[in-house]
Amino acid sequence: MKLHPWGIVLDFISILSIFVMACFVGYYVVWSVTPALHTPLMAVTNAISSVIIVGALVAAAEAGSPAAKWLGLAGVVLASINIFGGFAVTERMLAMYKKKEK
Protein backbone atom coordinates (compact mmCIF):
# COMPACT_ATOMS: atom_id res chain seq x y z
CA MET A 1 0.00 0.00 0.00
CA LYS A 2 1.44 3.35 -1.06
CA LEU A 3 1.14 6.24 1.39
CA HIS A 4 0.10 9.54 -0.14
CA PRO A 5 2.51 12.43 0.63
CA TRP A 6 -0.36 14.54 1.94
CA GLY A 7 -1.04 11.86 4.55
CA ILE A 8 2.33 12.54 6.14
CA VAL A 9 1.70 16.29 6.13
CA LEU A 10 -1.76 15.88 7.65
CA ASP A 11 -0.38 13.57 10.36
CA PHE A 12 2.27 16.16 11.20
CA ILE A 13 -0.30 18.97 11.32
CA SER A 14 -2.52 16.88 13.62
CA ILE A 15 0.34 16.13 15.99
CA LEU A 16 1.54 19.74 15.91
CA SER A 17 -1.94 21.08 16.69
CA ILE A 18 -2.27 18.71 19.66
CA PHE A 19 1.12 19.89 20.92
CA VAL A 20 0.16 23.57 20.60
CA MET A 21 -3.15 23.00 22.40
CA ALA A 22 -1.35 21.10 25.17
CA CYS A 23 1.05 24.05 25.56
CA PHE A 24 -1.84 26.49 25.98
CA VAL A 25 -3.71 24.23 28.41
CA GLY A 26 -0.55 23.59 30.43
CA TYR A 27 0.23 27.30 30.59
CA TYR A 28 -3.20 28.25 31.86
CA VAL A 29 -3.36 25.34 34.31
CA VAL A 30 0.03 26.12 35.85
CA TRP A 31 -0.56 29.86 36.16
CA SER A 32 -3.96 29.40 37.82
CA VAL A 33 -2.62 27.11 40.56
CA THR A 34 -2.77 28.62 44.02
CA PRO A 35 0.54 28.87 45.90
CA ALA A 36 -0.61 26.23 48.40
CA LEU A 37 -0.90 23.66 45.61
CA HIS A 38 2.35 24.58 43.90
CA THR A 39 4.51 22.14 45.88
CA PRO A 40 2.36 19.05 45.13
CA LEU A 41 2.23 20.11 41.48
CA MET A 42 6.04 20.27 41.38
CA ALA A 43 6.24 16.81 42.95
CA VAL A 44 4.03 15.40 40.19
CA THR A 45 6.11 17.19 37.57
CA ASN A 46 9.26 15.60 38.99
CA ALA A 47 7.61 12.18 38.81
CA ILE A 48 6.64 12.73 35.17
CA SER A 49 10.20 13.82 34.35
CA SER A 50 11.55 10.63 35.92
CA VAL A 51 9.30 8.62 33.58
CA ILE A 52 10.69 10.68 30.68
CA ILE A 53 14.23 9.72 31.72
CA VAL A 54 13.33 6.03 31.72
CA GLY A 55 11.74 6.41 28.27
CA ALA A 56 14.76 8.28 26.92
CA LEU A 57 17.11 5.60 28.24
CA VAL A 58 15.04 2.83 26.63
CA ALA A 59 14.84 4.78 23.35
CA ALA A 60 18.59 5.40 23.33
CA ALA A 61 19.32 1.74 24.08
CA GLU A 62 17.09 0.51 21.26
CA ALA A 63 18.21 3.16 18.75
CA GLY A 64 19.81 2.00 15.57
CA SER A 65 21.52 5.21 14.54
CA PRO A 66 24.01 7.40 16.41
CA ALA A 67 21.74 10.44 15.96
CA ALA A 68 18.95 8.67 17.84
CA LYS A 69 21.36 7.78 20.64
CA TRP A 70 22.42 11.44 20.93
CA LEU A 71 18.78 12.54 21.00
CA GLY A 72 18.14 10.03 23.79
CA LEU A 73 21.11 11.46 25.69
CA ALA A 74 19.75 14.98 25.18
CA GLY A 75 16.36 13.83 26.53
CA VAL A 76 18.02 12.39 29.63
CA VAL A 77 20.04 15.58 30.22
CA LEU A 78 17.06 17.92 29.77
CA ALA A 79 14.77 15.83 31.98
CA SER A 80 17.52 15.67 34.64
CA ILE A 81 17.80 19.46 34.62
CA ASN A 82 14.02 19.67 34.94
CA ILE A 83 14.00 17.30 37.93
CA PHE A 84 16.83 19.16 39.67
CA GLY A 85 15.12 22.51 39.13
CA GLY A 86 11.83 21.09 40.38
CA PHE A 87 13.42 19.84 43.59
CA ALA A 88 15.19 23.19 44.09
CA VAL A 89 11.93 25.12 43.67
CA THR A 90 10.07 22.69 45.94
CA GLU A 91 12.75 23.08 48.61
CA ARG A 92 12.43 26.86 48.45
CA MET A 93 8.64 26.67 48.64
CA LEU A 94 8.80 24.38 51.70
CA ALA A 95 11.37 26.69 53.34
CA MET A 96 8.82 29.51 53.15
CA TYR A 97 6.53 27.59 55.52
CA LYS A 98 9.19 26.87 58.15
CA LYS A 99 9.31 29.01 61.24
CA LYS A 100 12.23 31.38 61.30
CA GLU A 101 14.76 30.81 64.07
CA LYS A 102 15.62 33.81 66.22
Automatic annotation (TrEMBL):
Subcellular location(s) per record: Cell inner membrane
Q: Which GO terms describe its biological process?
A: NADPH regeneration
What reaction does this catalyse?
NAD(+) + NADPH + H(+)(in) = NADH + NADP(+) + H(+)(out)
Keywords assigned by UniProt, alphabetized: Cell inner membrane, Cell membrane, Membrane, NAD, NADP, Oxidoreductase, Translocase, Transmembrane, Transmembrane helix
Annotated signal sequence is: none
Q: Which domain of life is it from?
A: Bacteria
Q: Where is the NAD(P) transhydrogenase alpha subunit C-terminal domain?
A: 16-99
Q: What does the record give under GO molecular function?
A: NADP binding; oxidoreductase activity; proton-translocating NAD(P)+ transhydrogenase activity
Q: Which residues form a coiled coil?
A: none
- Give the record's membrane topology: Multi-pass membrane protein
What broad class of enzyme is this?
A: translocase
EC code(s) of this entry: 7.1.1.1
TM segment ranges: 6-29, 41-61, 67-90
A GO CC term assigned to this protein in UniProt: plasma membrane
Function as written in the Swiss-Prot or TrEMBL entry: The transhydrogenation between NADH and NADP is coupled to respiration and ATP hydrolysis and functions as a proton pump across the membrane.
Q: What is this protein called?
A: proton-translocating NAD(P)(+) transhydrogenase
Q: Which organism is it from?
A: Alteripontixanthobacter maritimus
For this protein's source organism, the top of the classification is: Bacteria, Pseudomonadati, Pseudomonadota, Alphaproteobacteria, Sphingomonadales
Q: Which gene encodes it?
A: pntA
